[in-house]
């Protein structure tokens, strides 16, 4: 028995499918209009834009204003052009430093580190300055190859305990930030050679655990609120340079001679009235800078011209007493003032080192800075 075949008129089938196609196209058009009017498409566009910005390391503050996201793609092009311009205008010496193992960031538009940084754990150096970044993330412990953390002039208020995991760290510069304490875990960075915590203004002590840093040769804790030389510093047996100027010191410990390797000792802008005789035991000391306004007693041998020591007694002329001629003029911040003062002293000391003919004992060196 043969198969039964149902035969339709082809025009009927064609008309049926054309009707269905028209209905489907009408539905698609209606759906497109609905999506266009809804917020879903806008949200999707914003999400994709934010993802692209994060991938390129652009901080949120640049594209998000008052909670609204500017999805103009020209913004991305503008930022990329500015980045290329800044890169081409870098100083030659900074350009030499750039490599696949060095991360550099600068500019007040940065309020947080780019998300992409977390994946670059091969980096050996961070150079971050003049930003509004406040927090160093805990994932810093992943950067086991880190040797230099150069973080001056930011808004950093806290260092994570995880910084102690950086066993290869050689230099830490957190000067002119907003730190009030240093994590004791930093004492685990036993290869640390240079520590700069100057200009934080509110720093009052260093944790005892930093006594473990036996390789440190340079410590700068100037422009803070130290009332005494930290005990941990006295235990840094290889220390060669110590700057504790512009603090609240009124005396020095009698065992200051424990720093047998000390070569440069900066004490100016404190309220020292005398220098202990144990200073004479610092046989390698070649530069000593103090403020002479309050000194009434010091070992005379420090001023002996037969020694290699350059003893500099500064007669301070505090900037605090300077009056602004224009009452409407805004005085620079304390932190900026301290930074400027430090740069002046740095230039003076460098010049002093290079000039062999400088007298070993200078009675008056006055700095008068009119703001």
From TrEMBL:
SMART domains associated with the record: LRR_BAC, LRR_TYP
Swiss-Prot/TrEMBL keywords: Leucine-rich repeat, Repeat
GO CC, any one term: cytoplasm
Gene3D superfamilies the record matches: Ribonuclease Inhibitor
UniProt KW Repeat keyword: yes
PROSITE patterns the record matches: LRR
Domain of life: Eukaryota
Signal peptide annotation: none
Name this protein carries in UniProt: Leucine-rich repeat-containing protein 2
Organism, as annotated: Rhinopithecus roxellana (Golden snub-nosed monkey)
């Amino acid at each position: 028995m043969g198969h039964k075949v149902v035969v339709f008129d082809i025009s009927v089938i064609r008309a049926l499918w054309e009707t269905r196609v028209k209905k489907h196209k009408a539905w698609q058009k209606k759906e497109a209009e609905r999506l266009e009017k809804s917020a879903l498409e806008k949200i999707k566009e914003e999400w994709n834009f934010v993802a692209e910005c994060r991938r390129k390391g652009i901080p949120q503050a640049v594209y998000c204003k008052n909670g609204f996201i500017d999805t103009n793609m020209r913004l991305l092009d503008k930022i990329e052009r500015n980045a290329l311009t800044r890169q081409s205008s870098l100083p030659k010496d900074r350009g030499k430093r750039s490599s696949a193992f060095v991360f550099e960031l600068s500019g007040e538009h940065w309020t947080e580190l780019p998300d992409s940084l977390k994946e670059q754990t091969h980096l050996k150096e961070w150079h971050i300055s003049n930003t509004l970044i406040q927090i160093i993330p805990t994932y810093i412990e992943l950067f086991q190859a880190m040797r230099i953390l150069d973080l001056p002039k930011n808004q950093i208020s806290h260092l994570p305990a995880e910084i102690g995991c950086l066993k290869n760290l050689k230099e830490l510069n957190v000067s002119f930030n907003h730190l009030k304490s240093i994590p004791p875990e930093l004492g685990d960075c036993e290869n640390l050679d240079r520590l700069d915590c100057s200009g934080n203004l509110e720093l009052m002590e260093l944790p005892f655990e930093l006594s473990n840093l036996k390789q440190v040769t340079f410590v700068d804790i100037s422009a803070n609120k130290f009332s005494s030389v930290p005990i941990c510093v006295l235990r840094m047996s290889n220390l060669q340079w110590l700057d504790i100027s512009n603090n609240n010191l009124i005396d020095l410990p009698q065992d200051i001679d424990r720093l047998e390797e000390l070569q440069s000792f900066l004490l100016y802008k404190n309220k020292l009235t005398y220098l202990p005789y144990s200073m004479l035991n610092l046989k390698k000391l070649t530069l000593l800078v103090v403020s002479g306004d309050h000194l009434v007693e010091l070992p005379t041998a420090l001023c002996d011209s037969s020694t290699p020591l350059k003893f500099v007694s500064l007669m301070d002329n505090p900037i605090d007493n300077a009056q602004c001629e224009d009452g409407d003029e805004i005085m620079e911040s304390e932190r900026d003032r301290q930074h400027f003062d430090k740069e002046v002293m740095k230039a003076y000391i460098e010049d002093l080192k290079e000039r062999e003919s400088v007298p070993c004992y200078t009675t008056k060196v006055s700095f008068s800075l009119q703001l």
